[in-house]
C-alpha cells in the first residue's frame, strides 16, 4: 500500500507499478559535417509514474479520494509519495482513471504522473526610506538689488556679482552710459 500526501491529507493507493524516470538535456551543435559536439548537459526534473487502485468501502469514498487528487493537481500542491519509491516535492502533472471491465464497486484504477519540483525561497527586505519624502524644491535665487551710486557700471556689477552684462541690461533697461543715480538696480 502506497500513500500520497500533502502533509495534511493522505490518499492510499494499492500500487501495481512504480516507475522513476530521470532525463538529462544534452546540447549538440554541428562543428564539421556530420560531427556534432556536446558542450553541456542539464538535468531535468524526476518524473514518477504510478499505476494502481484506489480502494474504498463504496463508490462515494472512492470519488472523494479522486476529488482530492484533482484538487491537489489544480492547486499545484507539493506532495510526497511513500511506496517502493519514496520521494517528496512532487507535483501531479497527469491523473487518469480507468474503468476496466465496467469498473468495480469498491475500487478504481488510476494512473498518476508526478514531477519533481524545485522550489526557490526568496527573502524580502523592506526598504527603509532615509531621505526626505518629497525631493526638495530648488531654491529660487532671490534677486539682489542695489541703489545706484555715481560710478556704478554694468561692467562693475558683472565683476562684483558675476551676472553677465547682457542679463544686467535686460533686467534694468538703461543705456550703458546713463544709469540713473539713486535708482534701484537688479544685479543678481
Present the secondary structure layout.
Elements: E1 2-5, E2 10-21, E3 24-32, E4 35-43, E5 47-55, H1 59-75, E6 79-82, E7 86-98, E8 107-116, E9 145-147, H2 154-161, H3 165-172, E10 184-186
Antiparallel strand pairs: 1-2, 1-6, 2-5, 3-4, 5-8, 6-7, 7-8, 9-10
Structural overview:
This protein has 188 residues and is of the alpha+beta class. The chain folds into 2 domains: 2-27 and 41-116; 145-186, Membrane-bound Lytic Murein Transglycosylase D, Chain A (Roll), CATH 3.10.350. The protein is 18% helix and 40% strand. The chain contains 3 helices and 10 strands. A hairpin with a 4-residue loop joins strand 1 and strand 2 (10-21). It is elongated and about 120 Å long.
Structure described in brief:
The chain is an alpha+beta fold. The chain has helices spanning 59-75, 154-161, 165-172, and strands spanning 2-5, 10-21, 24-32, 35-43, 47-55, 79-82, 86-98, 107-116, 145-147, 184-186. It folds into 2 domains: 2-27 and 41-116; 145-186, Membrane-bound Lytic Murein Transglycosylase D, Chain A (Roll).
| Classification by helices and strands | alpha+beta
Computed Rg: 42 Å
The separation of the N and C termini measures 92 Å
Q: Beta-sheet strand percentage?
A: 35-45%
Which terms would index this structure?
Membrane-bound Lytic Murein Transglycosylase D, Chain A; 40% strand; 188 residues; alpha+beta
Amino acid at each position: 500500500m502506497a500513500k500520497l500526501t500533502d502533509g495534511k491529507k493522505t490518499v492510499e493507493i494499492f500500487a501495481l507499478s512504480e516507475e522513476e524516470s530521470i532525463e538529462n538535456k544534452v546540447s549538440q551543435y554541428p562543428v564539421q559535417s556530420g560531427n556534432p559536439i556536446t558542450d553541456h548537459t542539464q538535468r531535468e526534473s524526476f518524473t514518477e509514474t504510478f499505476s494502481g487502485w484506489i480502494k474504498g468501502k463504496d463508490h462515494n469514498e472512492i470519488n472523494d479520494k479522486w476529488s482530492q487528487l484533482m484538487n491537489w493537481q489544480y492547486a499545484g500542491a507539493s506532495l510526497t509519495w511513500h511506496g517502493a519509491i519514496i520521494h517528496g516535492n512532487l507535483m501531479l502533472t497527469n491523473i487518469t482513471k480507468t474503468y476496466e471491465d465496467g469498473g468495480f464497486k469498491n475500487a478504481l484504477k488510476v494512473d498518476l504522473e508526478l514531477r519533481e519540483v524545485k522550489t526557490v525561497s526568496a527573502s524580502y527586505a523592506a526598504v527603509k526610506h532615509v531621505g526626505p519624502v518629497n525631493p526638495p524644491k530648488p531654491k529660487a535665487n532671490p534677486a539682489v538689488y542695489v541703489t545706484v551710486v555715481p560710478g556704478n557700471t554694468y561692467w562693475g556689477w558683472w565683476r562684483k556679482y558675476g551676472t553677465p552684462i547682457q542679463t544686467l541690461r535686460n533686467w534694468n533697461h538703461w543705456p550703458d552710459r546713463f544709469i540713473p543715480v539713486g535708482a534701484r538696480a537688479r544685479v543678481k
